[in-house]
Design brief:
The chain is of the alpha/beta class. 47% of the residues lie in helices and 10% in strands. The chain has 18 helices and 9 strands.
């Protein structure tokens, strides 16, 4: 039996609720919880990640999520030797470093390093020239523009802090800067959740209203759903005939309900001859990838039409290049702020090696937000102790 069973009881959640979240049968969840047996027809890792999402949404801590998949027998006090959980306490502490509270450079730190602006603050990106462009980011950036320009259904998946919002701002900026005849349609997603018990879910009717408001704001919506959809189709055809392209962009798309994802196919199939009238870009965290699983019958028609791209961590030399770029944009050589040992320590602190059932697994947390927060905290610490640069010892002490 997995510790997950007692954790669900502790959180006041049932196995049936978890089954609905995972889009599997209650019997499947019972096999997982009671016997640790995962269905062979589904991706075990995706199910584990989705289970952690469910637990997190109901108040489970990172430690509780990490321990949820431990066999209860592994926790006996008289066991000959404890079996390593899926993540060690050190792993959890390292992952938590990505979730540091927002760090800002103290005035004394700016003076110490002769910096007049925070290189990692949101305000540091004032134009496309302030964007760090790795090969991976360049590909995603172009994929978004080409989808908006020529049509398609694209899902951009990335961890929190990987740069999704910056890419969306860049897409809007490029359309304006290059005078592209593209209308971006962005439904209102504040407080959006994937069901009406947790918040307000985004429904197909809300998407249709957003499209009409962007394309034909002066038209009064028809009364019946069928008439409104026909009205929307006509408005898109007329706008397309006038030379415009239309791109529906849904941010925080991991919070989309499954029925709404399923209905996206109807919007995507709006056409005028051979031309698609609406392209769609979904932007979300890894939960979106789990929802767009090709084995999920409810969304398979959308999945078959959807290209998925992912923003990967800044591995290898990209970390050095990122730090050099961000600091030099502020007129500061990277070597004056952090030495080579400090960079290696940053890399090590944001790289987690976890003991898994099938062997060790390395998880990188080298995303811009995590890197910026950690280095900012290190710079504050270096200034406090009067060190001229951030060194490995400073990083290890944060």
């Amino acid at each position: 039996m997995l510790k997950l069973k007692s954790l669900l009881q502790q959180l006041g959640r049932t196995q049936s609720e978890l089954a609905r979240h995972l889009n599997v049968s209650s019997a499947t969840v019972a096999q997982i919880v009671n016997h640790g047996e995962w269905p062979r027809s589904l991706d075990e890792r995706a199910l584990r990640e989705s289970t952690c999402i469910f637990l997190h949404s109901h108040g489970a801590t990172a430690a509780e999520q990490a321990d949820a998949f431990i066999e209860v027998s592994e926790l006996r006090a008289n066991a000959a030797r404890p079996v390593s959980p899926s993540k060690t306490r050190e792993d959890i502490n390292q992952e938590d470093s990505m979730l540091l509270r927002k760090q800002t450079l103290y005035p004394a730190t700016r003076k110490h390093f002769a910096l007049f602006r925070d290189p990692f603050a949101d305000e540091a990106v004032q134009s496309n020239e302030d964007m760090y462009i790795s090969p991976d980011i360049r590909y995603v950036r172009e994929a978004m523009l080409q989808t908006a320009r020529h049509g398609g259904l694209l899902a951009v998946v990335a961890e929190s802090g990987a740069g999704k919002t910056t890419l969306l701002r860049d897409l809007e900026d490029r359309i304006l800067r290059e005078a592209q005849p593209i209308t971006l349609i962005r439904p209102y997603v504040l407080a959006m959740e994937d069901n009406d018990q947790k918040g307000k879910s985004l429904k197909a009717t809300h998407i249709a209203e957003a499209i009409m408001a962007a394309v034909a704001p002066l038209e009064k919506p028809r009364s019946s759903p069928e008439a409104r959809f026909a009205q929307l189709h006509k408005a898109l055809r007329e706008s397309h005939a006038a030379g415009y392209r239309h791109c529906l962009v849904i941010d925080e798309a991991h919070a989309l309900p499954i029925p709404t994802i399923k209905h996206l196919k109807r919007f995507f199939e709006l056409e005028s001859g051979f031309k698609k009238l609406l392209s769609i870009i979904l932007i979300g965290q890894p939960e979106l990838k789990a929802k767009l699983n090709e084995r999920a019958q409810d969304v398979r028609e959308v999945v078959q039409r959807c290209e998925m791209v992912e923003l990967t961590p800044l591995e290898g030399q990209q970390l050095d290049e990122y730090l050099k770029f961000k600091l030099e944009r502020m007129g500061k050589p990277a070597g004056d702020v952090i030495d080579a040992g400090g960079i290696e320590a940053l890399r090590a602190k944001l790289t987690v090696t976890s003991s898994r059932q099938h062997g060790a697994e390395t998880v990188s947390l080298l995303y811009p937000l995590a890197i910026g927060n950690l280095l900012t905290a290190c710079m504050n610490k270096a200034a406090e102790y009067g060190f001229p640069r951030v060194t490995a010892d400073v990083v290890k002490g944060v």
